């Protein structure tokens, strides 16, 4: 009788014990996490600290009395020289005690800041003339600053607006200045035809926030729209002596 030889191949990975892999997310248990972003025309200041409460289960083991392998009943103690009176024994089941540790710091807070909407003004206020500059401005501040306290952390926010003017006749102007009345204003426009024009001002806010001496850019921008109606007229020329 001939015997055949077989070579047994064992995959290498089957010899390696499988160890579970845990992925831990970043937490804010050591220091506060602060984020400032914009959403739906609002600036949101958010802070978080801690992972939340940690709970553990501890099983308290109670020693049991040895039992006979045959009767499955407790084995009585061996007699000694002095008779031992029979004592009724009560066996308590194992008790599982839930021990809750002191919760870790788990704080979160959110503050929503509404940025102001610009009011548009122009000069001359009554019936500007064609071919005469009209001065425009808005009442927004050059910078919006706010200091807030979120979960015990101080956050400084600073935003600045930029402006895009649409004068209603197809002409646009961009500026970082909010304009001023005559004669100092730099936002001015001259209409060549009489009519009623819808002037639109788009204010775009962006900036940064500072926490623990570190400055970061605010995610996103806040856009606000303001409108005003300007009626421009023409005037006849009259010669005088």
Structural account:
With 241 residues, the chain is mostly beta strands. It has a domain at 26-54 and 103-232: Immunoglobulin-like (Sandwich). Helix content is 0%, strand content 43%. It is built from no helices and 14 strands. The chain has strands at 33-39, 42-49, 55-60, 95-100, 107-114, 120-123, 134-138, 144-150, 153-166, 172-175, 188-189, 195-211, 214-217, 222-232. The strands form four sheets. Strands 8, 9, 10, 12, 13 and 14 form a six-stranded antiparallel beta sheet that branches. Strands 1-2-5 form a three-stranded antiparallel beta sheet, with no helix packed on it. The N and C termini lie far apart (142 Å). Mean pLDDT is 76; it is low at 3-26 and 52-65.
Helix content: under 10%
CATH class label of the domain at 26-54 and 103-232:
Mainly Beta
Secondary structure: number of strands: 14
Largest sheet: 6 strands, antiparallel
Whole-Å distance between the termini? 142 Å
Mean pLDDT: 76
Overall geometry comes to: rod-shaped
Sheet/helix structural class: mainly beta
Supply the CATH architecture of the domain at 26-54 and 103-232.
Sandwich
